[in-house]
Structures are given as structure tokens and as C-alpha cells.
Amino acid sequence: MHASALSPLLPPFFLLCFPQRPCVPGSRSVPGSMAVCYQYQLPVLPLDRPVPKHVLSRRGAISFSSSSSLFGCANPRLLSQTFTNSSNLWIPSSGWEERFLERRGAISYESSDQTALYIRMLGDVRVRSRAGFQPERRDSHPYIDFRLLHLPPETVELASARKIRRLLSFQRYFRSAHLFRDVSSLNSLCILDDDYSGQALCMLEKNGSWNFDIFLFDRLTNGNSLVTLAFHLFKHHGLIEHFKLDLVKLRRFLVMVQEDYHRNNPYHNAVHAADVTQAMHCYLKEAKFAESVSPWDILVGLLAAATHDMDHPGVNQPFLIKTSHHLANLYKNTSVLENHHWRSAVCILHESKLFSHFSVEESYQIERQLGSLILATDISRQNEFLSQLQTRLDMSDLYLNDACHRHFMLQIALKCADISNPCRPWELSKQWSEKVSQEFFHQGDIERKYKLDISKLCDRHTETVANIQIGFITYVVKPLFVEWSRFTNSTLSQTMLGHLSLNNASWKGLLQGQTQSGEETDSVCREQD
Is the pTM of this model over 0.85? Predict the structure, then answer.
């Protein structure tokens, strides 16, 4: 299969609507015709002003603002009949996505009296106005804005602090980009505040420790744990020199990956991706792996770990299927999220031009193997991979000198890294357990609100964190890590099984305490009655 054949497989990507108020969230008016969209640090241009070419060519969003009669009706699609090529932005009336297949970004239309919407990763356009939902093309369930439902209430002071942090990160990014030029070797912490860089550097020196506290590291890096850790690991493994990677392109790629994780997801966010990447690094250091893996294997493994949950919407596959989400239709209800994560990663690889110096065949191979690893994280395929691993171990049929066998074990390693939270020390494991349960319960709240059947483990009224974790450890985590321990037979594998056993006992103790407390409460209520 030629690399060019991949292009039809890359899906047009989705939109996110923000209709809370009739202007772009976080924007304010300033003198003159230009305004600043603080939430995305992007220019807001009036409709009668041509869009500069440098704006069209950059990644991000373009915001058009006007109080003219153009938006006097409820249908923003009239914009497509008004703009022409002479205004530097042309949107075909037959379909908005055609103009944007060449670039990844977004456009935001704003009207003071009718509609505000933010379209990101265009391809399946949904329009939501203040008057309510408008039908979409694929006749799926009315669009639910998952991000808004995950947003915690916040004060103006908190929002302002977030804007300042985003601005500082933006400035540090450009400062580091200038520093990268003509520099063959650079500390990956150059973009950090001086107060924290020393502490973060100390943590990076212990990047192979199973007690690595990713939450602390994320705080020390000002929310840039994935970028900082991944860059450091690329340097640690010698991938930058071996593959002659451009530092600016690598930095850009990692920033784009991190930004594509939804910060408002309690669990499936960039911190989880950084945690999985660190776990993958630990597994690649195992003696059985270290003596046989090639730089190519390490490159693909770290890339897959960093991108394996990109653009996760915070809901699971059954939810997307039962709401007839366009991604479920696109991927025919099979590994829906995993396919989307893979295609998102490929798009960013293309946009960042990280491997532009690779041959066509090498680019195709890395995209194909990246997809194979990410698709293996589909939890519905757990028994399939576990059965294969057991069979190979029973028959002593694992030869890591064989590239196919190494790739299979990379798939197993990524699966282990993805669900390794219960194998961490209790202080870390408990935090992850609470976060994933919070995300489950958010989905259950959405399903309850829209009168859908509540998915298993997602009903906060019947499920508990302890109950969810006990079942997850017993039926999913332990069987896989027992086989992983058979393969590696290492100190790390025994340490993980030890933590797993202790954490399971801790959850059972908490569950027993909750049960006894509930029984005592019921007894008191009966006595009062």
C-alpha cells in the first residue's frame, strides 16, 4: 500500500461549539477594528476586512466579528454566499470542510445578536445557535458539548489567572523556538520558569523510577508535563541525533500533541498521556527489551504513548455509538476512539513536518506501526491480546530478534502502560482512580440529562470508586500484568504486582467501611421510624 493511499483514510475532524454568549468566550472590545480573543490568543477581524495570508497559514482560529445585517438571520451559512476569493477566504456553499482539508485549524463566527460558534478540526459541521440545535448532515443525536459539561464553575479571578498562564506559555514557546535555532543540543527545560526548572530537572534525572509523581511534575512544568517529558526522553534515548530530528519541529509537534488533549477531561488529558509515556519508558528499559529493541522501536513506542488518547472527548465508544456520533459512523462502530486518536496523530505529524526528511516508505511505515500500537489499546480487544500473549509464553514462541515479535510486545507494553495506574504506589493510584471515576460519572450525568441509557460504571448513584477499581483490577489489570511478569521476570514487574495487590486490598477495605457505614445509617433511620 503506497503512502499516498493513506490520504483518503484521514478523516475530516470535528468542531466544538461555544454558544454561551453571543461573542467569542474571553474576548473584549479594544479601540480600533481589532480585538483580542484572550482564550485562544487570536485576532478578531471585522467581516469587511481581508484576512491576512499569515493568519490563514497558521494553526489556530480566526474570529470574525460584525454587527452588520449579514448575521441578521439564523443561518451563518450565508457567509459562504458573501465571501469570495478576493477576500482571501473562500468557503464553498456546498460544504465548509473543503477549504480546510489543507490546513488544520478553526474558524469562529460571532454575532452580537444571533450566533456564536467555534468550529475546530473542520469536517463535520454542526451549528448551534442561542435558539437551540440545528440539524446536522448525518442525522445523529443532537450535538452535546462535552467540554462545557466538564467545565467546573470558576470565578473571574481564576479565569484571569488562566489567561495569564496561557500568555506566559505562549511567550516562552516563541522564546524557546528562537533558542532552538542553530543549537545542536539543548536542555528541554529551557522554557520553564527558573524557580521550577531545578526541581523539574531533578525529577527528570529519575525518569525511570516507578514512583515518578507525574502530578507534581506537571505542576513544576506549569502544565507542560507531556512536552517536557517527551522531549527529554527523545534526547535521553538518542532519537534526536539518530533520526536527525529538527528541534524546532519536534518541539512544535509535542506542543500540538499536548494542546490536542482536552484539559477539562478529568482523566483522558495530557497528564495521563505523560504518565503513559513515562511508564512506556520504564518498560523499554527492561532487560528483555533493552537488549533487542532498535531506535526505531523506541521512536514508535514513545510516539504511540504520547499520542494514544489525542482529542479524547471524555466519553467512551458505546456512548458515541448510541448517539450516532459522526466518528462512530465514520469508523463503522469499530475502535472508534482509537482510530480517531491515530488519525489525529498522523495529521499532526504531517502538519509539523517532523519526518519530512524521511523517505515515503519510512513515513508510511511509521504511520502504519503507530496505528497498530494505538489500536491495540482498545479495551474491547483485551482478551484477544491476552490470549495471544499467554499462548506465545506457554509455547516459548517469543523471539525478540524478530521485528514482528518485538512489535507485538510493544503493543503489550503500551496496553500495560495505558492501564498501569493500579500498579502505581497508593498515593498516585488513588488519584488516578478518582479521576477516571469522575469522568465516568460525568458521562453518566450527560446520559441522564438526555434520557439515554446510563452506561455501565457511569451511574454515580449506584457505583463507587472502590467498586469500580476492584472490578477493574480483578478482571482487566491483574491478568495482563501477571503475564507481563512472566515475560520480563524483573524487579519492576514484581514491584508492580506488589502495588497492585496492596491497592486492591486498600479498595476492599474502603468498600467494606462504606458498606458498614451505610448499614449503620439504615439502622438508625429504621429506629427513628
Answer: no
